[in-house]
Amino acid sequence: MNDDVRNIVLGVMAAGVSAALGWVARTYLWKRRLRRKQSFFGLPDHAESLLVVNRNAGGPELSVMRHDVFALLELSALIKDCNAHARVVAHDAAQQGFGERTEFCLGGPASNRRMEAHLSSLLPGVRMNAEAATGPDVGAFRIGGEEYRMDAGRSEYVLLARLTADGGRDTRPVFLFCGQRAITHQAATRYLARHHERLARKYGGGSFVLLLKVVNSEAYGPDVVELVADVTRAARTALPEPAPTTAE
User: Fold this and answer.
1) pLDDT band at 248 (very low <50, low <70, confident <90, very high)
2) Rounded to an integer, what distance in angstroms lies between the CA atom of residue 219 and that of residue 163?
3) Which of 9, 24, 56, 115 qualifies as a FRET site for 168, CA 20 to 30 Å off?
């Protein structure tokens, strides 16, 4: 074997070793990224999760708004990426404990009984006006001492929360998407899909409650979303009871 042939063989071997090392490194990084994503969502391989759907507040019991369907599709893609499975459950049929399976619950308390229960037990500092039929207070949030009113099509708010029970490592989180209109649920799920890595770095496996604002949905749909504030502390602190009125 002359020098030219030897150099060619060595070059091929070096290229093969470099390619193999690159493949191993890429595979390792991909698996590490997948494990972090699975940990954040509480979705190990082949895990089952629940998609708890609300109903159209103005329609029949099993009618789901179009933007809520889009939100479910966003979540389904996230779940599939984690090599997990999803089961769609109606809001009034999801009778299970908290933390048994990862749960994605969307809809306001007026159209989702499970969301109403979650807000009452897990986020006692949040109130959503589900009584007003018209006027500026329709769907208004009260979080701590602040109030957030909706300007339909221009400025709308949604809560995005990841909540975990105090317990062992196997406790699964529940994700809440509670907004003033159906399009805000889609906006919140899309925000979660885009920013879950940053959220995982910031909060780890802990709980958080974020208030998001959907800007000019009439023109931009669910794509323009602003983070208003991290309201975790206020949302998890019970609101003071109103002072009793005394008769004169």
Assistant:
1) very low
2) 32
3) 115
pLDDT at 134 over 70: no
More confident residue, 153 or 63: 153
H-helix segments, 65-180: 66-81, 113-122
Name the residue with tokens 């300007």.
Answer: 151
Give the pairing of strands 174-179 and 155-163: antiparallel
Q: H or E element: which one contains 35?
A: helix 3-41
DSSP string computed for 198-213: HHHHHHTTS-EEEEEE
- Please give the structure tokens belonging to residue 245: 């009125």
163, 207 Cβ separation under 8 angstroms? yes
pLDDT tens digits, one per residue of 88-102: 888 877 667 777 889
User: What angle (nearest 5°) sits at the alpha carbon of residue 5, between those of residues 4 and 6?
Assistant: 90
CA gap 174, 97 in Å, rounded: 11
3-state secondary structure 161-192: EEECCCCCCCCCCEEEEEECCHHHHHHHHHHH
